[in-house]
Amino acid sequence: MLAVRKGRKLLVTTGALLAIGALVTGCSSETGGDSSQPTNASVDGNAAEGETVVIGFSGPAADHGWLGAINSAAIAAGENLGDVDLRVAEGTNDANLQISQVEQFINDDVDAIVLLPTDGAALTAVATKAMNAGIPVVNVDREFSSPAAARTTVLGDNYGMGQSAGNYICERLGDTPDAVVAEIAGVDSLPLTTERSEGFADALETCGLDVDNRVAADFTVAGGEAAASQLLAAAPEIDAIWNHDDDQGHGVLSAIDTAERDEFFMVGGAGSANAMELIKAGESVLEATVVYPSTQAADGVRLARLIAQDKAMSDLVEVEVPKRIVLNAPVVTSDNVDQYLPTAFAS
């Protein structure tokens, strides 16, 4: 284990040293320190291999294209970092099993833990236990119920996804106040679905539109097809549809083809490679998709490495990794699809 490990508990449980670190940095530069030498916050110092750190990673079962991409990207990030020993627990949707996995990481005295919890509230206590043991936890995608449970949290922007989708539809239909807008949500019981729908409604309101027809699916192909069939039967005329998830979008598009409907355009969600290829081809009602990055756990691994090695993000003046990082939710269209395809996931 790292020699610095013994002092890390203070670093992850108190913010007082931030000010001290900044002061020391400032004093060293004022007293003639050699600014040409790499530091832990410089590009060279950040990238330089350090002492190997052991990082435990636990995430849900890869029963969905996006989750599969989350796991594979995290593993690839660990493999590409020469000073990271990434220990990957078996993906699970059982909160109790995931708790036991984190307990094992604590017992193994790893240097950091990256955790995408199957249930953020259920994993809060064990994540807090890891933090109290001096092991920094990077929380990914589904937030814990206490900020004390994580050193850093990496999130996609669910509300921002809805905003992006609504803003795009406003740009296309804002001059048509009686336009009919439909929404095919994911799992309604999940907070992320509520956040996406709230962002969507708020964005539409800015141009005088609202959601006229809404159904919920379950992030699966079959669920998407069933929900879309229900929607299309209930709404004889539609101008635009926002579908929250590109995985369930396969089923949505199948229902649209079966119903022989093409009077509307559709915006997807998550940003799968399959959706982007359809957008690029321009032969489908799918006109755009909103990215929900599948890089979050990979970002978590890289951040865990920086934290465990007492390094910082080189593009920031701050001398420590931020407490919270929210990734952007850009809209992908035929104009910019080539920019996003390389990091898109297969659904």
Automatic annotation (TrEMBL):
Task: State one Pfam family annotation.
Answer: Peripla_BP_4
Tell me, in one coarse class, where this protein mainly resides. Answer: other
Keywords, A to Z?
Signal
Domain Periplasmic binding protein: residue ranges: 55-311
Name the InterPro entries for this protein.
Peripla_BP_I, SBP_2_dom
Its domain of life?
Bacteria
- PROSITE patterns noted in UniProt: PROKAR_LIPOPROTEIN
Could you say which residues form the signal peptide?
Answer: 1-24
Report the locations given in the UniProt record.
Answer: Cell envelope
Q: What is this protein called?
A: Sugar ABC transporter substrate-binding protein
* Organism lineage: Bacteria, Bacillati, Actinomycetota, Actinomycetes, Micrococcales
